[in-house]
Design goal:
440 residues; mainly alpha; Amino acid/polyamine transporter I; 15 helices
Length: 440
């Protein structure tokens, strides 16, 4: 007679097994967010301003939350992506999203690619950043063409766990050592200063990431359902998303803290080179954990940036595939093209070439410019300025009359979303007026 587990054990195992099948898109989101916004922008915020801008990090994480959550919520309840939802609003909205994506994706991919290449160059000391970038892009494209979503999902879970543990360890050790300087860790800031205000907008632009990337949540949620054959209840999908989002938010605080404790007030300038910046970040970790950890930390940092790079390639290509299907292809041709993944693969190649062109121009052609930091700030600022449009549309999709009542957000989430729209719109308007010289 075979041993049988009691019903109570099955009652515990089955929900956990189902939840495990739902996990994935939220971790992918966290991986995308932890890249440039944390390793670069949060570290810069702590290094240059101490804790003076931590309020901006907190507010950006809080006020952007609803619009990313709506991506997962909508996909679970409707069985379609946010981009399909934009089609329900009107074809003009799909065109608007398509144009927003075209106007930002090469800069975003270039920023992520430049940072990833810098960490790889720092790890192996290659010294030819241009060719390192080419190698990173080629490897990302190959992985996605042949590995598809399954390998992306598995890779990100492993990489994310390694970085989470190493970051928490470095953070705890940094707190134990205390600040590098004995003075205050909060600098005086003047938001009327052009550099400070521009950096503030750039910091919030990708904190935790760009709002228009909320469509990726919905696409990844659907792909996870297709991969596992399991359509989770809304509660499980939101648990997966919230786990990734909260993890990302907490880590952003960790990076600001490490930047403030280790670099603020030490006259250590942020390098205007992706490889040199990568070296500084790794040194920041080893300052807390010891020289023995340098190679481990350098490997972990590159791994998370590589995971971010692959996720961004995948997200943009999926979004291009979906918008192209809705705008340019008949239903019959769309099915044929999607089965051969022509649009997806073509989007990968176009994105790689376009992003490398931006990197080449800003980092190598204009060698005397601000290069690396200018590229990061440009990409993050563009993302912040287009955020209010996507935020408004995402809110409309989960509150309109055709959306299932049982899946609609609760009152507190609606209030937070409206507050987020006001927050994003207000700062965007102020930024535009600032650039026009209204406040001079």
């Amino acid at each position: 007679m075979k041993n049988r587990l009691p019903p109570l054990v099955f009652g515990i195992i089955d929900p956990m097994k189902n939840l495990a099948q739902a996990l994935g898109p939220g971790i992918l989101f966290a991986s995308t967010a932890i890249g440039v916004s944390h390793l670069v922008q949060s570290t810069r915020a702590g290094a240059e301003f101490g804790f003076a801008l931590i309020w901006a990090v907190l507010l950006a994480n809080i006020f952007k939350y609803p619009f990313f959550e709506f991506g997962s919520r909508y996909a679970n309840a409707m069985g379609e992506s946010l981009i399909d939802g934009y089609q329900r609003i009107g074809k003009w909205m799909v065109w608007l999203y398509f144009l927003i994506m075209l106007g930002s994706m090469f800069f975003v991919m270039a920023a992520v690619g430049a940072v990833t290449s810098g960490f790889l160059d720092n790890l192996f000391g290659i010294g030819h950043l241009k060719w390192v970038t080419v190698g990173v892009f080629v490897l990302c494209v190959i992985v996605l063409i042949f590995g598809k979503y399954k390998i992306l999902d598995s890779m990100i879970k492993i990489i994310g766990a390694v970085l989470l543990l190493s970051t928490l360890m470095a953070f705890i050790l940094t707190l134990g050592r205390g600040p590098s300087t004995g003075g205050s860790l909060i600098s005086e800031i003047d938001l009327s200063d052009a550099y400070t205000f521009t950096f503030l907008i750039a910091l919030m632009g990708w904190m935790p990431t760009a709002v228009d990337l909320s469509t990726w949540n919905s696409l990844w949620t659907l792909e996870r359902i297709n991969q596992t054959g399991y359509h989770p209840p809304l509660k499980q999908t939101l648990f997966d998303f919230n786990f990734g989002y909260i993890t990302s938010a907490l880590l952003s605080i960790c990076f600001v803290t490490m930047g403030a404790y280790i670099m603020f007030g030490t006259n250590c300038e942020i390098p205007n080179s992706s490889a040199a910046f990568a070296h500084n970040v790794v040194e920041m970790y080893t300052a807390s954990m010891g020289d023995w950890s340098y190679f481990i930390i350098a490997t972990a940092a590159f791994s998370i940036m590589f995971g971010t790079c692959i996720a961004v390639f995948d997200g943009y290509s999926r979004a291009m595939q979906k918008t192209s299907e809705l705008l340019f292809l008949s239903r019959l041709n769309a099915k044929k093209a999607l089965s051969k993944r022509k649009i997806y693969v073509g989007s990968l190649l176009i994105l790689a070439v376009g992003a490398f062109g931006v990197i080449y121009y800003m980092l190598f052609h204009k060698a005397d410019s601000q290069g690396f930091k200018a590229l990061i700030d440009l990409a993050t600022t563009i993302s912040f300025l287009i955020a209010p449009v996507i935020a408004i549309v995402n809110y409309r999709l989960v509150t309109w009359k055709h959306y299932p009542d049982k899946a609609k957000p609760k009152l507190w989430l609606k209030i937070l979303a409206i507050s987020g729209i006001i927050f994003l719109s207000g700062f965007s308007i102020i930024y535009v007026l600032f650039k026009l010289g209204v406040f001079e």
